[in-house]
Design brief:
By secondary structure, the protein is an alpha+beta fold. Helices cover 40% and strands 19% of the residues.
Amino acid sequence: MTRAQRRSRQHRLAGVPRAACLLLAAAIVAGHCAPASAQQRRPSIVVAQLLRVAPAARAALPIGIAPLEAVPSASFVRLRGLPATAALSDGHSIAPGAWAVPISRLSKLTILLPESATGQSEISITLVSGDGSVLAEAKTMLVVAPAPPAPTSGAAALSLRAAPPSEPSPDASPPPAPQLSLQARERALRFVKKGDAQLAEGGIAQARLLYERAAEAGLAQGAMAMAATYDPLELQKLGARGLQPDRAAARRWYERARQLGAPEAEERLRRLARE
């Protein structure tokens, strides 16, 4: 810078009041520190304060994130405080009672608990970014209780009490099994295979969830495998410890397998009736 240019600059600055210089500097600093208007607001977790689930039945586990556009990529939801025997339809177990679920699977998330499960648990739900930062937190109370019985009229109730429990007749012909496409059958068989792997590792709740999916698809093997997880004799063969047999549940699933065309279900039903 030449001497003439320095002199000109000094004259210009001398003409600007000191207060104006300070205000200008403060404005520049504030402009750098103020949040940009284009920044997205922080996401939040949307969940009911109370979730009621019936044991041995798959139930929706509604958890929402809003707004989704504020969630960084690779984020996920972490649930803690679930019953140790709970199984979720998506995600993976990271510890007893703790699961990690991708954001994209929340809308279809379901939970399954064994028939013996009861009580309530406080569930902690955390939205976690890919780098481990906590973006949002929420809590809900999970209540596990049997669904109330449907009301019946007096005559219907009398009829139900008077009717003895029916056992399948050896000569009765089961209804025709649904015809599965090759693709649907292969998918259902994969569910059974994954269920067998979970069962071998002690994941009874996860195994039952997979067997149930196979049975719902119309695969008799899925219903047979599901029934075996409740059958006292089959549990003894598996060497499963800490599991309470449930003859009523085993009977229901064997009956379902019979309807799906499993010939061995008939003998299992007769054996349960004799025990």
